[in-house]
Specification:
about 425 residues, about 65% helix, 2 domains, three-stranded antiparallel sheet, mainly alpha
């Protein structure tokens, strides 16, 4: 059920007042009435109904009785406790904590996402001492989402969403995992360390790149920002090329062995224009040997590639997204049509296409320059890696379809193309592509 349908349902619903309800004055059997117990009973009843396990009744009836209790301040705590155990199922289906919270936010709103964040943080399955560092990072990000949660429900629609999120959790499908599920933690901890031939990104190098990017974003001087951006991209590009060549020289570079080293990474895109932003991500990943699958219903994309290239794609995309957003805001400063959704959608799509053209040109030049150092061995290594990525993408996503775009605003298209021409693509990025 989408947002618009839920809003229409909420708008057509009438709030039921219970000033004369015996539950608001006390119990008829002489025992003290416990509103929390009544709320928990109703929440469990509603969850059974929306997940198809209820014997009868409707969610609307359950919500009206819940409203009659008139204790909205207790509802969220009860929902977290009752619905919370359902989140553990997501981890074994390949979902990460941040995937789940982001998808809920995309389908519902910030308040429901905050509730699910509380469920995630309270999940006993994620509190084990052998929890990997990747999961600790996920939970740290989820805590930020929890802190942004809105207040308790105060209308029919918000209460309905608190039941519908249970159905959302119950219907989660299998996805390609980007973090290890809790069931595999113990085995992974007992396994031997990665082999020297396995590609790994040096965290010290990544910290240097992030520091340079932070300086580029903080300075107010364009020339200084370009220098920092160029240096960061150069570091990443040189490292990626060297890593690929070392890996090829130290191990069997067959497609099957290479495909085993391909990984998936999730990037979460926010509205507005999330679909169009995904096409910008696809452009950056494509020229860097990666593949992108857009999961429109959940608001995130899965990028398939080798670890080094995945880091470069993420860093480059993030930087270009900042530049594009700033350029689009400048283009809309004149007001009128330049602020319309049609103009901005076309702007993003045109920006993405022109960026891909520029990166592909840079890739051809970079291949020629890198061949002077590595000779004729560079081209077959790059071709084998791309084939391995494609093989893994086909295995993980056998039923994908090309993303199609409808006709777009001409003014936004040309404005986006002009902005892409001005985007910074420094020498370091060219070398990898």
């Amino acid at each position: 059920m989408g947002k618009r349908h839920r809003q229409r349902t909420a708008a057509s619903a009438h709030r039921v007042h219970a000033d004369a309800s015996p539950r608001s004055t006390g119990s008829t059997d002489g025992q003290r009435y416990d509103p929390r117990a009544e709320i928990e009973r109703l929440v469990r009843e509603g969850v059974l109904v929306v997940t198809g396990h209820g014997g009868g009744g409707s969610v609307a009836d359950t919500i009206r009785r819940l409203e009659a209790v008139d204790r909205d301040d207790l509802v969220d705590d009860v929902v977290v406790r009752v619905v919370g155990p359902m989140v553990s199922r997501a981890w074994e289906l390949g979902w990460s904590a941040l995937d789940l919270v982001h998808a809920v936010h995309h389908e519902f709103d910030r308040g429901i996402a905050g509730l699910v964040a509380e469920m995630v943080l309270a999940d006993p399955a994620l509190q084990r001492p052998d929890r990997p560092a990747a999961w600790t990072e996920q939970l740290d990000l989820v805590r930020i989402r929890r802190s942004r949660r809105s207040t308790s429900p105060d209308d029919f629609g918000k209460l309905a969403d608190r039941f519908l999120v249970a159905r959302f959790l119950a219907r989660l499908p299998q996805v390609v995992p980007v973090v290890m599920p809790p069931s595999a933690w113990r085995l992974a901890a007992a396994a031997s360390a990665p082999r020297p031939t396995d590609e790994q990104v040096d965290p010290r190098m990544l910290e240097r790149v992030r520091a340079l990017l932070a300086k580029a974003e903080s300075t107010t001087f364009d020339a200084e920002a370009e220098a920092f951006m160029g240096k960061a991209q150069e570091l990443m590009a040189r490292y990626a090329i060297d890593a690929a060549m070392v890996s090829a020289a130290s191990a069997d570079a067959g497609i099957g062995r290479l495909a085993a080293g391909v990984q998936a990474r999730r990037l979460h895109l926010d509205d507005p224009y999330a679909k169009e932003k995904a096409q910008l991500l696809g452009a950056v990943a494509s020229v860097n040997g990666g593949r992108v699958v857009w999961h429109g219903g959940w608001g995130f994309a899965t990028v398939v590639g080798f670890p080094v290239e995945l880091d470069l794609v993420e860093l480059t995309f993030t930087s270009l997204l900042v530049q594009m957003t700033r350029a689009m805001a400048n283009a809309g400063a004149s007001g009128g049509r330049t602020r319309s959704p049609a103009f901005r959608r076309a702007f993003v799509l045109s920006f993405a296409q022109r960026i891909q053209e520029r990166l592909e040109d840079a890739r051809r030049r970079a291949t020629e320059e890198a061949s002077e150092h590595y000779g004729g061995s560079l081209v077959p290594v790059q071709a084998a890696r791309r084939a391995a990525v494609q093989q893994r993408a086909d295995e993980w996503f056998p039923d994908t379809m090309p993303m199609r775009s409808r006709s777009v605003d001409a003014g936004g298209w040309y404005a986006g193309r002009s902005a892409a021409d001005l985007a910074r693509l420094e020498p370091g990025l060219d070398e990898l592509t």
